[in-house]
Amino acid sequence: MVPTIIKKRSCLFLLTIQLLVNCSSSDSVIDTNRETNNLVGLNTIQPGVQVAYPKGSTKSQYGFYVYVPSEYNIANAEKYPLLIHLHGGGARGDSAVNPNDLNSILFDGPPSLIHKNQWNPKHPMIVVSPQSPSIWNTENLHNFITFLIDNLKIDTQRIYMTGFSMGGKGCYDYISSKGSNSYVVAIVPIAGWGNVSTGNQFTNIPVWAFHGDADRIISYDKSISMVNAINAENPTTKAKITIYSGIDHDSWSRTYDNTGRGSANSAYDPFDISIYEWMYLYKKTDL
Question: For the Dienelactone hydrolase domain, which residue ranges apply (predicted)?
């Protein structure tokens, strides 16, 4: 254990997301017939390349994409920060049934930027993008991170999580469940929502939320309420919230690719630093 411390797909998807909000209480195809216990035994790990692992091709309960920096070398001692990206409802799928389902992850967020050769964070990091067939399950996520730590050269002091829409909720839910016992050191939930009764679980977890004030799928009030609930518990690092004026549900594209810098509503926290640089400000030993 570690120390304590869509783009829019269809009307049906939009309806599903709205139901989740209302009911909430709290490229490539890999041979799936191979016997594999871990990642390091696979010759498909390629530094600087994003590789697909459909469900069933490893011991993980998820299918996922994994990207390791070009500097990554299994023979070296150097370890790297880990960024876990949680997709929204439009990218749900089961790659055990259809391995090509996994490709829907490539439409948004860091995996999309990597796929389009637009990924250039200041600090090299491993990026893993799992796929869930339904709303994110916190225990499954925790076990998945354990699996990654066991099989990749990860700096466990620098594990970060981000997600949008349903994935934003997944970020909040993971910390609401695990608190300071989570593997994750900081989260960036975008256009999400959470359980406002769990603010005390975020005491040692820096949070930077983003939302558009014209979001008709998940109201930006959901993010404001969650951040207020966290800050009411006097966290070590005050939770931040950035609101884009006139932006609808897709507030994540401009956040992930950094084009939203300087365009946020001045009544809220400014978007004045890349989220990836902001994450890197924090590590377990600092909190």
Answer: 148-249
10-residue block means of pLDDT along the chain (287 residues)?
36 39 35 41 70 93 95 89 98 92 96 96 96 97 97 96 99 97 98 98 98 98 99 98 98 98 96 98 84
β-strand pairing of 63-67 with 126-131: antiparallel
CATH, domain range 46-286? 3.40.50.1820
- Please state at what angle helix 166-178 crosses helix 138-151, rounded to 10 degrees: 80
210 within 8 A of 190, measured Cβ to Cβ: yes
Domain range summary for the chain, segments of one domain joined by +:
46-286
- Diameter of the chain by CA atoms? 54
Residue 50 has which token pair?
């994003």
pTM for this one? 0.86
Tell me which residue has tokens 């549900």.
249
Tell the residue number behind the tokens 């992850």, with chain if given. Answer: 105
